[in-house]
Amino acid sequence: MKTPLTAALRLATFAAVTFAAVSIAWFAAKSRIETQERNAKIAQYREINPDIAPALLDHPENIEIEGNPAQRYTAADGSTYYQTSTYKGYNGEIKLLIGIAPDHQTLLGVRVLAHKETPGLGDKIEARIHPWILQFAGKGLANTRFAVKKDGGDIDSFTGATITPRAVANQIGSVLRAAAQQE
Predict the structure, then answer these.
(1) How far apart are CA 171 and CA 183, in angstroms?
(2) 8 Å CB contact between 145 and 169
(3) What φ, ψ does residue 154 adopt, rounded to 5°?
């Protein structure tokens, strides 16, 4: 007949063996996971500038733009890349990657790194779903008002969603103005 103590010991042994197995698997895969994450990140940068060297990611600068934390990466050619977020989207945080030319006035491109916007509506900010985000490449402070047309700006929105494009356009404008001031 089994006692509760025997059952508890068996359960504890099973838990310890399972924990050890998961830990070993995690430590074995850790470097591969980090490598894959780094490769995915550099691929996003290369969507904006195909000539980006992976070493760019080795020296981030932590900065603030309008009181919000951001990371700035400076490439060898003088272009800068900002990872920043806006919390003014419909469903919260939208993480952006913004590439700015060496003149600190012109956008090389913008990509959305992460968001929780409504599928089929607000998710049109992703380049893989809709080309909307591609309209920012080549725009600059001299020729663009970074607001949606509904707010008197030059940025097209998309049908059925204004909050998400407004948040993205405003954040891009803020980052570009901050980059121009830091020049």
Answers:
(1) 19
(2) no
(3) -110, 5
**Dihedral sign (CA 133, 138, 155, 84):** positive
Instruction: Report angle CA 143, 130, 77 to the nearest 5 degrees.
Output: 50
pLDDT tens for 3-62 read 888 889 999 999 999 999 999 999 999 999 999 988 888 898 899 999 888 888 888 999
- Cα–Cα separations (whole angstroms), residue 51 to 35, 81, 108: 19, 13, 12
H or E segment at 62?
strand 61-65
Nearest to 111 by CA among 179, 174, 46: 46
Q: Quick check: 139 and 157 in contact, CB under 8 A?
A: no
* Strand pairing category for 92-100 and 107-114: antiparallel
- pTM of structure: 0.81
